[in-house]
Input
Amino acid sequence: MLASDKLIEAFNQQIGNEMGASMQYIAIASYFDSETLPQLAAFFYRQSEEERTHAMRFVKFINDVGGRVKIPALPAPQSDFASAEEAVGKALEWEEEVTRQIYDLVEIARGDRSYVGVRFLDWFVEEQLEEVSSMSDLLAVIRRAGQDRLLYVEEYLSRQGKAGLASPAAPAGGEAAE
Output
């Protein structure tokens, strides 16, 4: 067997973790939308889509190795934030937690001698470096700007090309639907 029942169970839990992250990022994006900060909102809507894509990678892997996908119940995301710093700090904490989760999955796969599982997880290890770095940078920029100068953060995201979609309803190219 390419993956043990233990690894499949852990991957199913990770599907929930990734979908939970997706929902948390929608909540953060909505917070920024309500504060009329469209670049920050777009950044987090894009992050939400990425997390959903990550979940789907686990779904495909489980199906490919003949396992059964069992998506766990998901807790409601935090929806209220006192500041942009709190919202992005929450995102950074989440990415650091996901990094720990991925490392734990690697250890399970190694322990089971599931080399196909280890190889699959290599992509996620690299992805987490990017995710933690990106959130750390964004949090540093927000702290430097301060709550009263978030328009500088908007400009930073615009210049960095990190905003992504204009809204959750916009197609992948960022153009408005006709």
